[in-house]
Amino acid sequence: MWLQVFYLCLSCLALSNPSQAQGRASLRRSNDHAGRCQYTFTVASPEESNCSRISMKPEMEGVMSRLTVLEALVSRLIAGGDGGEGTGLGTNGEEVLQRALSQVTGEREQLQQDKERLNTQVQELQRRLDELSQEAESLRQKPCQQTHTSGGTPRENRPASDPAYDVGNGAYQEMKAEVTEVPASHLMPGGNQNSTGCGELQSVGEPVLHRKADSITGKYGVWLQDPEPQGPDYTNKTVWRIDTVGKDVRQLFAYEDMAQFSRGFPMKVLLLPEPVESTGATMYRGSLYYQRRRSRALVRYDLASESLASRVDLPHAGFHGQYPYSWGGYTDIDLAADEQGLWAIYSTQKAKGAIVISKLDPESLEVRKTWETNIRKNTVGNAFMVCGRLYTLASYTAPNTTINYMFDTATGNGQAVAVPFKNMYRYNSMVDYNHALRKLYAWDNFHMVTYDIRLGRVSHGSS
Ligand code: CA
Fold first, then answer.
1. What average pLDDT does the structure give for the chain?
2. Residues forming beta bridges with residue 282, ordered by sequence position
């Protein structure tokens, strides 16, 4: 490489003296009488077939001194970076080399970025592959026993994989289960005693287990109750669940109440018109809100009419692995409902990965207002909204972690907080808030749990 650069310098030198015939110039290197290395540069004059030594000497000295300068330059460049490509012969050798060097440096940085991006993709694919392998293994081991009919009413005996209902005919299929009335669940006690008003999050209680999924498709997902149900079909007791493991997630399970949910079979399965991405869906005012797979499109699915009510792109939102939570899993866009309305938690290129919060119109899904925080989305395990304030979870795996940051949309200010939080099963893929019941809902490694929360001093501005 040194030689290549050196010959390039010689070419520059030759071009800078156009009166000399390039083809006849030569450089020789040999030991002198004293044994030291000596460079001899020979060039023919266009006007004289021979010349005296006296008249050649100043020219030779001039050439040699320029060679020395070039050698020093080349050494400096070699020491400073790995140039290696001559991109053309300019009139100034230094400029040419500098350009070549900066081009190569730029390409090297680009390659480094590509490598990091590809590494991330490989890790994500590896994770998905592991999950699918487990899923395949699980399905292989379970027999295909499903339906027993009883008086014409299909009844499920806990299918091998809970959501594995047959929807192969394209249209959705309802599953009516035989439901035994059970007294109101002890799991959701007392209704809403402390909902006297909004305030800051003071504490989060112990996780209360309601259900454990028994197949790989239930490793992570979304489960919720609608804090403000609409219409007669569904109530605030109805429990909703989506298993989000898999490529084409479209099934929404409805359970009569928490008792039925805990027992395991749904009263109804709805087939969503668009596939669901990840675990950021939420339930609010009779609609399921979710992110469409592999896109920044937000979907509102109306539960009463069982149809798509709105679909709008969330402007500039990163998706499908651009700005996920630390868990990954394409958790780029997280939807949340609280006392003040519907929110999207996400990030954009402009925000450089920091969490962005947008207040959404619940009907049209249009953005009403946006706030930019200064906490990076990929450093936190999850997030949720309470009383117009964003809270982030420090870790999705640590059994004893904290809610570590709060951003108040009323003031536009964020601050560090430290509210203890337990990931009892050490793989928390979803945390969402239900303001009617003042509870957090979470899906922690096959386990569907709730947490009671306590809010502090009453603040103004809540509805
Ligand atoms: Ca969330």
1. 77
2. 289
Range of the domain at 192: 172-458
Total structural domains within the chain = 2
Give yes or no: residues 203 and 100 share one domain.
Answer: no
The larger pLDDT score, comparing residue 286 to residue 141, is at 286
311 and 407 fall within a common domain:
yes
Distance 333 CA to ligand 1 centre (A): 9
* CA 337–ligand 1 middle distance (angstroms): 10
Q: What is the CATH number of the domain that holds 349?
A: 2.40.128.630
Is the whole model's pTM more than 0.90, yes or no? no
Q: How would you classify residue 449: left for phi > 0, otherwise alpha for psi between -120 and 50, otherwise beta?
A: beta
Q: What CA–CA distance (Å, rounded) separates 171 from 255?
A: 20
192 CA distance to ligand 1 middle (Å): 21
412: pLDDT confidence band, cut at 50, 70 and 90?
very high
Q: Are 207 and 424 in contact (CB under 8 A)?
A: yes
CA of 63 to the centre of ligand 1 (A): 72
